[in-house]
Amino acid sequence: MNAIKANAVLLLSLSIVLSACAQLFMKAGMMQLHGVTNLDLSILQLVVENKIALVWLVAGLSCYAVSMLSWMLALIKYELSFAYPFLGVTYILVYLGAVYWHQIGEQLSWQRTAGIVLILIGVVFVNRKSKVKNN
Amino acid sequence: MEYVLIAIVVTLTSIGQVLQKLGADRGLKNAKTMSQIFCAMFQWEIILAIICLAAAIAVWLVVLYMMDVSKAFPFISLGFVVVLLSARFYLKENIPWNRWLGVLFIIAGISLLAQT
Questions:
Q1: What is the pLDDT along chain B (116 residues), one digit of tens a residue?
Q2: Do residues B11 and B82 touch, judged by C-beta distance below 8 A?
Q3: ipTM of this predicted complex?
Q4: How many CB pairs under 8 A join A and B?
Q5: Is residue A40 less than 8 Å (CB to CB) from chain B?
Q6: Are B65 and A43 an interchain contact pair (Cβ–Cβ within 8 Å)?
Q7: Which of B58, B101, B115 sits opposite A125 (nearest CB)?
Q8: Using the beta-carbon criterion (under 8 Å), do B112 and A126 form an inter-chain contact?
Q9: CA gap B70, B44 in Å, rounded
């Protein structure tokens, strides 16, 4: 327990970085599928048949699982209202990764950047502990 | 179509979050050793949370196929809006002004993103 509390900053950082990696790897995996027209869960069948897609997906899901675990462990020490705003960093990491990682290569646009900045401000405000008694 | 799928993902993850929190409160608060923490993973709340999250991920993968991840991912913040509105209108909680302000920012950001 003490080891967890002493390393809570590390656990929180690990959780943030891994949850961004999870999104990027899952996207990279889904990008391996081309020309699918029936967009429902049967698409997941195609993932299993496509080895490269499957590797990215397993990597993404593993990151997601470890991220969730380290998040829960970090919450032993930190209150949710303190920890949650840091998750906002994930939005930045996913955006930068999607744009600058050649595997994905999405377009940078001012409108998307502005939208993400607004959401970040919103996430901080939503989770700020207010001085109102009923909190 | 993709927005319907995002709504499903947001709903499932919101339910999953609450269950995770309930499970963590019950199991982890009194856990002292690593093995007790490990056992806490197998409470019904956590199992149910994992099922919700697994279903959410399956639907999310379809969303990722259809949309840019840099566009789709921030939509997950709608979870805050859903939880806040249900706290206000279902649980009749008093919501401090800063949370409403936060929700307005999130909605504004999402509206901008939706147009890209």
A1: 889 999 999 999 888 877 877 787 777 777 777 787 777 777 888 889 889 989 999 999 999 998 999 999 999 889 888 878 877 887 777 888 888 999 999 999 999 988 88
A2: yes
A3: 0.83
A4: 145
A5: yes
A6: yes
A7: B101
A8: no
A9: 34
